[in-house]
Structure prediction request, 106 residues.
Amino acid sequence: MGTVAQAVERLADAAEKLLFETERLRRDIMRLRQRIEPFDGERAIPEPIKVEFGKRWTAAEALDMIGAARKAIAGHEIDLGAIRSLMDTIEKDAYSREELKPWLKP
Prediction:
């Protein structure tokens, strides 16, 4: 069985990786948004979460990173849902497809 320090180190490593994946999702959402014109109710994409990778973290800091990642992921789910809904509407509805074509970037 590992020590408490080893457990905190594993927790911090996992939190860093989670934040890295959260940043990857943020960039993916930005690329998707570039494919469509801005729409009503569109949220501003938050700035990336700043993390000093490789730093020695305390347990409290690791838990804060996990909390920040959870908050970011919840926001990304909202963004993806809005983008997906708009793209599905354009794709499935012939009338909307013609009406909304100006909103799609070439």
User: Anything to note?
Assistant: The chain has a mean pLDDT of 81. Residues 4-38+45-103 form one domain. The two ends are 58 Å apart (CA to CA). The first helix runs from residue 4 to 33.
